[in-house]
Amino acid sequence: MSQKIVLNELHRQATIMEADSFESGLSFLEIFSFDLILLDIDIPGGKGKFMIERIRQRQPNVVILICSAADEQIHALEYISVGANGYLSKAASKEDVIAALTIVVKNKRYVSLAVQERLLDAVSATHRTAKKLKAHELSGREQEVMQMLIKGKWVKEIASQLNLQSNTVSTYKARIFEKMGVTSIVELAKKAQQMGHA
């Protein structure tokens, strides 16, 4: 479905201009003020992400929607990160084209559901990695208490050996469990062994 056709359907009073090269498009920006630019990253004379910067230099507030046959899974977030308002595959359905145009003209970001899922997967992976690294955040005292817990010592024993109050050791224990993502001494021992802390 042609984005131009859908744009005409959504905004019948809109004036639509087409450029056959990137430099030609830039010359339009010197003369006319635009609300929306549909930018093909494969346009003749274009230079990838640098096109966004050159457009913004001329019209900082214009909405830029990338429309491309290039793999959105690879390029979408790359272009969004440098200032594009959205990324739309040329193979997108009419419904997706309508959604993209409707969203970006409100100055919101648009990417397809597939790209959103990839982004969420990346966030989840980062979260899992962060949880694995939390053991490195244990203080020296927490490391000490953890080793004693793993060896089977009771809170009162640990308190006595470290010259601490029992409630202080209990607080350390709770922090260690939280940071290590465990709920029992058995889980703590396994996790510590996996991470080289036991």
From TrEMBL:
Pfam families hit by this protein: GerE (PF00196), Response_reg (PF00072)
Which part of the chain is the Response regulatory domain? 1-105
Which key words tag this protein in UniProt? DNA-binding, Phosphoprotein
Gene3D superfamilies in alphabetical order: 3.40.50.2300, Winged helix-like DNA-binding domain superfamily/Winged helix DNA-binding domain
Please give the superkingdom of this protein's source: Bacteria
The HTH luxR-type domain sits at 131-196
One biological process term from GO is: phosphorelay signal transduction system
Positions carrying 4-aspartylphosphate: 40
| Single GO MF annotation | DNA binding
InterPro entries registered for this protein in UniProt? CheY-like_superfamily, NreC/VraR/RcsB-like_REC, Sig_transdc_resp-reg_C-effctor, Sig_transdc_resp-reg_receiver, Tscrpt_reg_LuxR_C, WalR-like, WH-like_DNA-bd_sf
CDD domains, alphabetized:
LuxR_C_like (cd06170), REC_NarL-like (cd17535)
Q: What is this protein called?
A: Two component transcriptional regulator, LuxR family
Q: Organism source for this protein?
A: Dyadobacter soli
